[in-house]
Write a structure and sequence with these properties.
By secondary structure, this protein is α/β, with parallel strands linked by helices. It has one domain (6-143). Helix content is 25%, strand content 20%. It is built from four helices and five strands; from the N terminus they run βααββααββ. It has helices spanning 16-30, 58-65, 93-100, 107-112, and strands spanning 6-11, 78-79, 87-90, 125-132, 135-143. A five-stranded mixed beta sheet has the order 1-5-4-3-2, with helices on one face.
Length: 147
């Protein structure tokens, strides 16, 4: 696959849709999207570039990016159980075990193995909880941009 995969984390909360919206707002405010930043380096951390937004809204950024997309989580507008462009779908416990050897992966598991993204089509996104011990601590949203 020619695109640069992305993966983000955001603090866990029971509602994945609200977590996605929080993540989108965070990344927009940081300006970590195309065309402001051509390609974001992952994982994102405290020292990651944060040039700030160059658009008045996420919708304006998406419109400016047009067919290329923002190459970021800004292109993902909702969570769903049905895969499709611009939506994030949950990875099943079986897919998590297949990818990471456990239904409760950690961030280290994701950093060590991005092979699960080989099945994700451009413009699509998957999500799943990341664990700290037995409790979910963060959501991971991961996918491939459109280009």
């Amino acid at each position: 696959m020619g695109s640069h995969p992305y993966y983000y984390t955001v603090e866990y909360q029971p509602d994945a849709g609200l977590a996605l919206e929080e993540l989108r707002l965070r990344e927009f405010a940081a300006g970590r999207y195309h065309p402001v930043e051509p390609f974001t380096e992952f994982p994102i951390g405290p020292d990651s570039p944060s040039p700030g937004p160059e658009h008045e809204s996420i919708d304006a950024a998406r419109a400016d990016a047009a067919g290329e997309g923002t190459r970021s989580i800004l292109d993902i507008v909702d969570v769903s159980r049905i895969p499709g462009p611009c939506v994030a779908v949950p990875l099943s416990p079986g897919a998590l075990v297949g990818a990471f050897g456990t239904p409760q992966p950690t961030m280290d598991d994701v950093r060590d193995n991005l092979d699960f993204l080989e099945e994700v089509e451009p413009g699509h996104c998957v999500f799943f909880p990341l664990y700290d011990g037995d409790l979910p601590a963060q959501w991971c949203f991961a996918g491939h941009p459109f280009d």
